[in-house]
Design brief:
- This protein is α/β, with parallel strands linked by helices and 257 residues long.
- The protein folds into two domains: 20-150, Tetrapyrrole methylase, N-terminal domain (Cobalt-precorrin-4 Transmethylase, domain 1, 3-Layer(aba) Sandwich), CATH 3.40.1010; 153-250, Tetrapyrrole methylase, C-terminal domain (Methyltransferase, Cobalt-precorrin-4 Transmethylase, Domain 2, 2-Layer Sandwich).
- The chain has helices spanning 36-44, 59-64, 90-112, 131-138, 152-159, 180-188, 202-211, and strands spanning 20-25, 47-53, 73-79, 117-121, 143-147, 171-175, 192-196, 219-222, 230-233, 246-250.
- Helix 6 packs across helix 7 (202-211).
- The longest helix has 23 residues, at 90-112.
- It is elongated.
- The protein starts with 19 loop residues before the first strand and ends in a 7-residue tail after the last strand.
- The protein binds S-adenosylmethionine (SAM).
- The site of S-adenosylmethionine (SAM) has 25 residues, from helix 5 and strand 10.
């Protein structure tokens, strides 16, 4: 039997300061559109985490490349499924939720070991961002900071040289995943619009814009501010191919002085 000797000196307690998770927005693609704060946090964090598709480097990792400090440990979080599967599919939702749980635990292990983690996100982390799924899982267990980023849509309307809203114009942001009639209805009710998440939804979105009578005003932007950027009037786009990083802008007309 082990007896505790009350006279024995107390053993020194090993203490580890728990790390902080920094959610960091990277902006729309141009590596010069990161904020000063984003660069500072990325360079001060010993661990860099980012989402990517299996077998790909990932857009966030590409944007952040010029700013990574030597010796930074990388923690890629690789999606098990692609965004091409419909989000209403039950198996897809289950698999994605398991992936977010596992990713949160991988980050938690780094934080518990006392290492700060910068989890970088394209655009703004709180705007349709995967970061949000880890934020809600970790925010009550750890210190979490979030650094705003320039959104993809802001990068796109500046790249297109397109003032998007004037005066009292109402701007509506629509995911292209909505049904065609819902898209048309929302487009008819707004002054200006951004339609994101095109991909395979592109033909449906174009038809909805046409049905709302907005084809003449709509502008298609692919990879705004990134290498390979394309900007063209939607009416001049003759094919149905739209990559993941593409969106459509419908600028407001407003009451101009
Ligand atoms: C999951 S959302 C992420 C949005 C991001 N958090 C942001 O702040 O812009 C991805 C969608 O944003 C749009 N997007 C983001 N950046 C873009 C860019 N640089 N060029 C074109 N579309 C972009 C595309 O429609 C894409 O499908």
């Amino acid at each position: 039997m082990n007896m505790i000797d009350p006279a024995a000196p107390a053993l020194p307690q090993a203490s580890v300061t728990v790390g902080t998770l920094h959610g960091v927005g990277l902006g729309p693609g141009d590596p010069e559109l990161l904020t000063v704060k984003a660069v500072r946090l990325i360079q001060a964090s010993p661990v860099l985490a980012y989402f990517a598709k299996k077998g790909r480097r990932g857009n966030a990792r590409t944007i952040v490349d010029p700013w990574i400090a030597p010796g930074t440990e990388e923690l890629p979080l690789l999606y098990p499924v692609t965004t091409e599967v419909h989000f209403a599919d039950e198996g897809y939702v289950r698999e994605l939720s398991g992936f977010y749980e596992e990713s949160a635990e991988r980050i938690a292990l780094e934080l518990l070991a006392g290492r700060d983690v910068a989890l970088v996100a394209e655009g703004d982390p709180m705007f349709y961002g995967s970061f949000m799924h880890l934020f809600i899982r970790l925010k009550d267990r750890f210190r979490v900071t979030v650094t705003a980023g320039v959104t993809g849509m802001a990068g796109c309307w500046t790249a297109a040289g397109l003032p998007i809203t004037w005066g009292d114009d109402v701007l509506t942001v629509l995911p292209g995943t909505l049904p065609a009639d819902a898209l048309t209805q929302r487009l008819r009710a707004t002054d200006a619009a951004v339609i994101m998440k095109l991909g395979t939804n592109f033909p449906k979105v174009r038809a909805a814009i046409e049905a709302a009578g907005l084809l003449g005003r709509a502008v298609y932007v692919e990879r705004g501010t990134m290498a390979g950027e394309k900007v063209l009037p939607l009416k001049d786009k003759t094919d149905d191919a739209a990559p993941y990083f593409s969106l459509i802008l419908v600028p407001g007309e407003g009451r101009r002085p």
